[in-house]
UniProtKB/TrEMBL annotation:
InterPro entries xref list: DNA-bd_dom_put_sf (IPR009061), MerR-type_HTH_dom (IPR000551), MerR_fam (IPR047057)
One Pfam family here: MerR_1
Gene3D superfamilies recorded: 1.10.1660.10
Keyword annotations: DNA-binding
PANTHER family: HTH MERR-TYPE DOMAIN-CONTAINING PROTEIN (PTHR30204:SF93), REDOX-CYCLING DRUG-SENSING TRANSCRIPTIONAL ACTIVATOR SOXR (PTHR30204)
SMART domains with a match to the protein in the record: HTH_MERR (SM00422)
Protein name, UniProt field: DNA-binding transcriptional MerR regulator
Occurrences of domain HTH merR-type (ranges): 1-70
Organism, scientific name: Kribbella pratensis
GO terms for MF: DNA binding; DNA-binding transcription factor activity
Amino acid sequence: MLTIGQLARYVGVSTKTVRVYHAKGLLPEPERDSSGYRRYAADAVVELVRIRMLADAGVPLARIRELGSTPEELALAVQQIDTDLTARIKSLRDTQRRLRKLAAGEISILPSNVEDHLAGLPALGFTDRWIAMERDLWIIVYATHPELADTLFQDQAQSLTDPELRNLYLAADHAHALDPDDPFLVELADRIVAASIQRYGTEPPGSDADPAIPDLLQNTLNASSPGWQRLDSLIRGRMADVGFTLRTSPGGRRAE
């Protein structure tokens, strides 16, 4: 006959765990001796080993209590548990592979044509800061406006094929480092507004989309640079004067 401490040590659990199993009805309470101590027979060891193995396999205690007591019922239950474990192991391995690919930079969140576009920006003269900003913003656009994202991306990619529009993008990129009072920002804002009206009229693609995300994107850009914040303010004022519908996409206000 074993005490609760001896039983717990023999199976490799704590005495607190044994008491929890008693409280949940998993392990029957044994008779107490004349001194009031619990005394466990060999069958309690077998039952506790069974409970521990099932619990270690991830089977909830409530389900363990419901398992059949006959060998046949237990065998069927264990077979189902084994099937569930196999599925969980596969899912965990798939997750592990994805995490390793993500850590190695082998998983692309963006479509391949967007990744190709970003990869080509250094050759056009764009800074690493601008490219990183574009990547982050396109991720948000594709996540929040999947129905518009391809249209917006194609519009921007096509605009970069125009030398004059590309130069405006590059000027906006390098405006990041300018003092907010630099007169070049006023000139750049005028050029951007003129180019936007010439390209889109007053209704750019995606102008009917929910404005919350574009505003969030623009505020993110503005917070990173006083120069960009000043440029955005100038563009907003001039656009409002002519009734142009403002919209933000990677690369700033769609005016380039």
